[in-house]
Specification:
This protein has about 375 residues and is of the alpha+beta class. It is built from eleven helices and 13 strands. A six-stranded mixed β-sheet has the order 5-4-6-3-1-13. β7 and β8 form a beta hairpin. The longest helix has 25 residues. It starts with a helix and ends with a strand. The protein binds alpha-D-galactopyranose. The site of alpha-D-galactopyranose has 10 residues, from α5.
Length: about 375
């Protein structure tokens, strides 16, 4: 891949003299969905697929970007003096946002650069291609200009840029999973204080299979912000009767006791998801530590039901993929992953059942939805690196 990157860089930007190549992974969340902005737990892992970047500093303040995933856009130009979000800048709003965020934190990028990207995460799949680009950009800036930031800082800066520059009020999960990824481990992260623990992913004779719905996201981002504010309102209402700082602090019992203080039935369901999903995530990690993969799978299934019925972020495409998966013998657990409204599902499937799973879920999806889904048997990989 390094050679491909260098060759393409030379074709686009003239030559590849002094070019450095980097990689940042994508991520999949195993359980703990829509909990990260509610002070709850998440359990994501980095993947071996991700985004490659080839970069070289310039003498002037120009920024020139090219993506092998969006060849038709050609070279998109900007400058260090134009760090403002702009719809015409398309995907380059992600790296520009990170350069801007570094500046906001007192780390001004001194010179421009030429940057070529190439990702093998399916676009818009909900496997965090945007967070991958953000963490990759931060990693590159640190390496090129010697900024003193930790990988955890790279995650926080990436999230800051997504919130403030790109207008999506996301939590910390994606950037954290990518910046802190570790081969064959998932990260059990408490988003209330960012304490975390690595848990080995030991799936006895089974693998993680991702099914991509190929549904275009559309309104996803605005719905995401809407769910977030519904949870914030529910928390305000709960706070009047019990002194909690986040939904993640509540046990199931405490929630049931106080839920009537939440003034709408919809908001009650949103908050119920946030509370129960957090508790499920804690239970799931415990099950995995006890080598009870079957219990882990059942909690994944419960997570999907809660996202479907209480949080309402699934939709026909994701529900079809999951409900068809549940019918296949050898599927340990299956649920939507990421923000929802499209994107992917994650399933744990026994090795012997993987072919059957892909064939049967694929055919049922095509039949019901009218276009095909894509399947990926994935591996859990490390965080960002220089190649
Ligand atoms: C998106 C966000 C994350 C998280 C998930 C839902 O991926 O970027 O912060 O909220 O949705 O769990």
């Amino acid at each position: 891949m390094k050679d491909t990157m260098l060759r393409r860089f030379a074709e686009i930007f003239g030559d590849a003299e002094g070019v450095q190549v980097y990689f940042a992974p994508g991520r999949v969340n195993l359980i703990g969905e829509h909990t990260d902005y509610n002070g709850g737990h998440v359990f994501p892992c980095a993947l071996t697929i991700g985004t490659y970047g080839a970069v070289r500093k310039r003498q002037d303040r120009k920024l020139r970007f090219f993506s092998m995933n969006f060849e038709q856009l050609g070279v998109l130009e900007s400058s260090l003096d134009e760090l403002k979000p702009d719809p015409r800048a398309d995907w380059t709003n992600y790296p520009k946002g990170v350069i801007w965020a570094f500046g906001e934190k007192g780390m001004e990028t001194p010179t421009g650069m030429d940057l070529l990207l190439n990702g093998n995460i399916p676009n818009g799949s909900g496997l965090s291609s945007s967070a991958s680009v953000e963490v990759l950009t931060g990693f590159i800036l640190r390496d090129l200009f010697g900024f003193e930031v930790s990988n955890q800082d790279l995650a926080l800066i990436g999230q800051y840029s997504e919130n403030r520059f790109n207008g999506v009020n996301c939590g910390i999960m994606d950037q954290f999973a990518i910046a802190m990824g570790r081969k064959e481990h998932a990260i059990f992260l408490d988003t209330a204080d960012l304490s975390y623990e690595y848990a080995p992913i030991k799936l006895d004779k089974a693998k993680i299979v991702i099914a991509c719905s190929n549904k275009k996201r559309g309104l996803g981002d605005s719905k995401y912000n809407e769910r977030r504010s519904e949870c914030e309102t529910a928390l305000e209402e709960l706070r009047k009767v019990c002194g909690v700082n986040s939904l993640g602090e509540l046990t199931e019992e405490a929630f049931e006791k106080h839920k009537d203080s939440i003034g709408s039935e919809t908001r009650q369901r949103r908050a119920r998801h946030a509370v129960y999903e957090n508790r499920r995530t804690i239970a799931a990690v415990r099950a995995l530590q006890e080598n009870d993969v079957a219990a882990f799978g059942r909690l994944m299934n419960d997570s999907h039901l809660s996202l479907r019925d209480d949080y309402e972020v699934t939709g026909l495409e994701l529900d079809t993929l999951v409900e068809e998966a549940w019918k296949v013998e050898g599927v340990v657990g299956s649920r939507m992953t990421g923000a929802g409204f499209g994107g992917c599902t994650v399933s744990i499937v026994e090795d012997r059942a993987i072919d059957d799973f892909i064939a049967r879920v694929g055919a049922a999806y095509q039949e019901k939805i009218g276009y095909s889904a894509d399947f990926y048997v994935v591996e859990v990989g490390d965080g960002p690196c220089k190649m």
